[in-house]
């Protein structure tokens, strides 16, 4: 009986024919393109949702800037305070937000009085803090709040908070600069960007100047004002009351320092001669603001000091009407 023998394989191998890779490679490239496209679309949708979806809706007609001046009706004449109010109101009415092109929005003004707030026996200068807090509530959709104390005048109606300060803040800010001159070990942050800035102040020869400052509305601003107005600081009897309290919290609270910038004094806070400022901080024609710092002390007269500049700002404002 014969058994079938397995057939022997040829000793000559078949020629190797590589599998075609064209189709899989094409598929992979398409998959990669689709994935990249989906990622780009997701990024775009995420960005749009955060810019438009989660942002607060600001009602039409909302003033972009609110100017706050606290009036001391107990120690100043009605005529003088009316001049201060007219100065702010005339400036506010002349301002048009050019960034909105066809939508012209005036600034708003707010004139509370020192007696409107319970200061628990603290000096009346403390009233600026609850006044700004009050303005945040009264104008809940406005973005910027400029506190400008009563013994001062806006001198240049051509200058705006946006174009003269906010749009230029990164170039104006004094970086790595002592908070309290001349050699405080606590210094301003060197790398802040404009969107990170919530408080804009100046300083004179003695320290931070709280008579003219700009604050951005938000949760941080409420925290800052509440911290500044803490009963402990009001009762501590600082030599310069709220001014020294401000310097204290800026130096001891990094959360506050991290949102603050100091800009050159004359940008929003030029002084009349006789105030605590060197030549770089003294008022010159064309400056935004002049302040009569200390005019209520030492035999000086705020009304007389303001009189010549009152005539000047009226003439400049009328010329631009």
UniProtKB/TrEMBL annotation:
It holds the Pfam family Glyco_transf_34. GO terms for molecular function: alpha-1,6-mannosyltransferase activity. Keywords: Glycosyltransferase, Transferase. The keyword Kinase does not apply. Residues 1-22 are annotated as: Disordered. InterPro entries: Glyco_trans_34, Nucleotide-diphossugar_trans. GO terms for biological process: protein N-linked glycosylation. GO terms for cellular component: mannan polymerase complex. Belongs to the glycosyltransferase 34 family. This is Glycosyltransferase family 34 protein. The lineage of its organism: Eukaryota, Fungi, Dikarya, Ascomycota, Pezizomycotina.
């Amino acid at each position: 009986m014969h058994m079938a023998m397995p057939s022997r394989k040829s000793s000559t191998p078949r020629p190797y024919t590589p599998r075609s890779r064209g189709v899989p490679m094409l598929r992979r490239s398409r998959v990669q393109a689709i994935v990249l496209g989906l990622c780009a679309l997701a990024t775009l949708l995420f960005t749009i949702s955060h810019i438009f979806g989660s942002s607060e809706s600001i009602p039409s007609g909302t003033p972009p800037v609110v100017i706050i001046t606290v009036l001391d009706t107990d120690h100043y004449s009605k005529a003088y305070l009316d001049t201060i109010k007219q100065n702010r109101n005339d400036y506010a009415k002349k301002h048009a937000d050019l960034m909105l092109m066809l939508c012209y929005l005036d600034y708003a003004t707010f004139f509370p009085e020192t007696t409107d707030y319970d200061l628990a026996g603290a000096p009346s200068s403390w009233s600026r803090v609850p006044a700004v807090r009050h303005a945040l509530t009264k104008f809940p959709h406005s973005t910027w709040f400029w506190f400008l104390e009563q013994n001062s005048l806006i001198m240049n109606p051509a200058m705006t908070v946006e174009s003269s300060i906010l749009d230029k803040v990164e170039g104006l800010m004094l970086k790595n600069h002592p908070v309290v001159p001349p050699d405080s070990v606590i210094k301003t942050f060197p790398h802040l960007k404009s969107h990170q800035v919530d408080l804009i102040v100046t300083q004179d020869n003695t320290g931070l100047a709280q008579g003219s400052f700009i604050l951005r509305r938000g949760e941080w601003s409420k925290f800052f004002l509440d911290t500044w107005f803490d009963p402990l600081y009001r009762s501590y009897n600082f030599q310069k009351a709220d001014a020294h309290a401000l310097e204290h919290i800026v130096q001891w609270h990094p959360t506050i320092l991290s949102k603050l910038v100091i800009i050159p004094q004359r940008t929003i806070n030029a002084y009349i001669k006789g105030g605590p400022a060197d030549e770089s901080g003294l008022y010159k024609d064309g400056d935004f603001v002049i302040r009569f710092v200390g005019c209520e002390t030492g035999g000086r007269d705020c009304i007389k000091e303001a009189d010549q500049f009152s005539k000047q700002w009226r003439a400049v404002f009328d010329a631009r009407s």
